[in-house]
Amino acid sequence: MSDIIIRQGGEEDVPAVLALLDGAVEWLVANGREGQWGTEPWSARPKAVERVRELARTGTPWIAEIDGVPAGTITLRQQSQDYVPPADEPEVFIHLLVTDRRHAGRGVGAALLAHAVAETRRLGIGLLRVDCYAGSDGRLVDYYRRNGFEPVQPFTVGDWPGQLLAQRVQALS
Questions:
Q1: What pLDDT is attached to residue 1?
Q2: Is residue 173 part of a domain?
Q3: For residues 21 and 52, is the Cβ–Cβ distance under 8 A?
């Protein structure tokens, strides 16, 4: 088993991020979980493609690689999604955490979340937040809880149920 390498990404990684998102949609659909991201690949939806490009321009994408191949991604910004209430303090917000299911069980997502904590700490910011799909059986909310996040507030966007979660990050001493 090789190590997970996390490198800073950029706009040139948009095709790789879209491929990871497309793979996730395929897996979700195959497992009867269409409620999270629907049934159409991200790369086939112009608004979704533009969202990924915009996040690559305005945030800091990170790519987890195994043997030089993208195995997951996360984008960090100091701004939340428009549909969640803004924080009343500086924050780092997680956008588009997704992993390649071919690497399930290897800790790619947990490594990216640990990297997000380290980056938040490096920036001297004490709040790391994320939102996620809260429908179905709540497995995604549970995943974030297992990785140190606590639910803050449920919300809905149209008929899409979401959950805002947060983690306090301690400054280096």
A1: 42
A2: no
A3: yes
